[in-house]
Design goal:
Number of helices: 13
Radius of gyration: 25 Å
Shape: globular
Distance between the termini: 71 Å
Number of strands: 11
């Protein structure tokens, strides 16, 4: 062992070239890390979905009495010390997606094989941007995204790219729509910029993810570019009101150029009528993007695929494996019907990226991002481990849990569900005691009840606003949960209600 790293108490974990001196140390370190992970899983994650601390309390617990970060450490530490600190400061203070009562936003517990893929991916350390920096990473991503394209229903000529998540995928989709489709509508050879972005319109429902507006803002469009159209009673966007809005805008001298639909909204799990919207887009020569970040995974199930129809009609689709594919953060994806559209939008030729002429697969030419982690490996391993049918079983299970929650809400007194028949595995519901009649009081009560459940530790749900009213929201993507766990959450809400009501008097 060289003296180059003798300044550290564990030099073998830095200078690990020689297996004779380093392999045993690495094996011990690997076991210690895995043991720490399992200790967290079975000790901490099983206790409660989230800690009960408020934000100020959490800051003091983590940072100390100052509630501010300490200076960076100047001296090295042993991994034993690090893992002790992990167990004391980190593990007890996280959101526990593995807890069976955790019905969060869309944080599914990651499959163990996905975690293993993350470990291997970090060891392999492929930079999936230029071919030479990650050749096998490039090919695995091509294979995985081909599976996503087939899931959506795209055929030859399509392409896909992995992203950090749904926000990045939606930003990239709207970038492609601007630089490819809007340029064509304007008769421009160059991507439109500046004043060319004025007077155009994009249509979406009131359930559209915030990232669509963010994308348009980032891309330089005026604020009024996004025209938000009311969804129906089940929070779905229909074709007719979009068609009417397009005609109205054209009469006003504006240029409609895109529709952004959602298949599985974050708020309610609602699915827009994509077939109607595709017909409208085709008649009016508009780009159709579908945000299926959450709902697209329903197509993994032969039984439930019909709940998310017609994705193949879209020009681009966002699909997000760290949601309903049960993958560890982060991994999102964008698939497009025409591969050249991605190349046209993102291709560049930095002087320091000089690949062999027979190696044309440079992923930075297909993405807004440059250097990207080897995200594909964990999904590649998971898909092979479970198969599409296995993924589908987990999706069906969570849909069944949502249906059970709806049925239990109907059986229990004073619960309301909106929409009455959820399309996927999101259930928006609220408890309305007889004592409360005022709408604002009922809203405040939902927030207080949610906090009481959080402190109780039986389960965790979020809150949302629907048609101006506050609802509890269960995003059920937890494949570890059972109907008993759903019942326990609802029973806890009923049990906690009297205390919440009395505290408000």
């Amino acid at each position: 062992m060289s003296d180059a790293f003798s300044w550290h108490p564990e030099p073998e974990l830095i200078g690990f070239r020689d297996p004779a001196t380093a392999r045993e140390a690495l094996e011990m370190f690997g076991k210690a890390i895995w043991d720490a992970g399992l200790d967290y899983l079975y000790d901490e994650a099983s206790k409660r979905p989230v800690v009960a601390d408020s934000y100020p309390e959490m800051r003091r617990r983590y940072f100390g009495e100052t509630s501010e970060p300490a200076p960076a450490p100047s001296d090295p530490s042993t991994t034993e010390d690090l893992l002790r600190e992990f167990r004391e400061r980190i593990a007890p203070n996280v959101f526990n997606s593995q807890h069976p009562g955790a019905f969060s936003y869309f944080t599914a517990p990651p499959l163990p094989v996905s975690i293993g893929g993350e470990v291997l991916g970090q060891w392999l350390h492929q930079g999936v941007d230029v071919w030479a920096a990650g050749p096998i990473g490039a090919l695995v991503e091509e294979e995985v995204t081909s599976w996503l394209r087939a899931l959506v229903g795209y055929g030859d000529g399509s392409w896909g790219v992995l992203t950090s998540g749904g926000v990045m995928a939606n930003v990239m989709a709207m970038t492609v729509a601007r630089d490819v489709h809007l340029a064509r509508l304007l008769g421009q050879n160059e991507p439109p910029r500046g004043r060319a972005l004025e007077g155009v319109r994009v249509y979406a429902s009131d359930q559209t993810h915030f990232s669509i507006r963010r994308a348009l803002d980032v891309l330089g469009f005026p604020r009024q570019t996004l025209r938000v159209i009311d969804s129906d009673g089940a929070f779905r966007l229909h074709g007719a009101p979009v068609d009417e809005s397009i005609a109205e805008d054209r009469r006003a001298g504006l240029l409609p150029f895109a529709v952004s639909a959602v298949s599985g909204s974050t708020n309610t799990g609602s699915v827009d009528l994509v077939r109607e919207l595709a017909d409208v887009a085709e008649r009016n020569d508009l780009w159709l993007h579908v945000d299926a970040a959450y709902g697209g995974a329903a197509r993994l199930s032969a039984r439930d695929a019909h709940r998310v129809p017609d994705l193949e009609r879209a020009d681009s689709v966002t699909i997000d494996p760290h949601k309903w594919f049960f993958q560890g953060y982060d991994i999102g994806g964008l698939v497009v019907k025409q591969r050249d559209n991605l190349l046209h939008t993102f291709r560049s030729s930095p002087e320091y990226y000089r690949s062999p002429k027979d190696a044309p697969l440079n992923w930075y030419q297909y993405s807004l991002e440059g250097t990207r982690r080897f995200r594909a490996l964990k999904l590649w391993l998971s898909w092979k481990h479970l198969g599409t049918k296995g993924f589908g079983r987990l999706v069906e299970h969570t849909n069944d849990l949502a249906a059970h929650m709806v049925q239990r809400c109907r059986e229990l007194e004073r619960f309301e569900v909106a929409p009455a028949e959820p399309e996927l595995s999101v259930v928006c519901f609220r408890h309305v005691p007889r004592e409360l009649e005022d709408g604002e009081a009922v809203d405040a009560y939902q927030d207080a009840l949610q906090r009481a459940l959080e402190m109780d530790g039986t389960g965790w749900v979020s809150t949302t606003r629907l048609r101006g009213r506050t609802y509890l929201r269960a995003g059920i993507v937890n494949y570890l949960s059972t109907t008993d766990d759903v019942d326990a959450v609802l029973d806890a809400l009923v049990r906690l209600s009297p205390g919440v009501l009395s505290s408000r008097r």
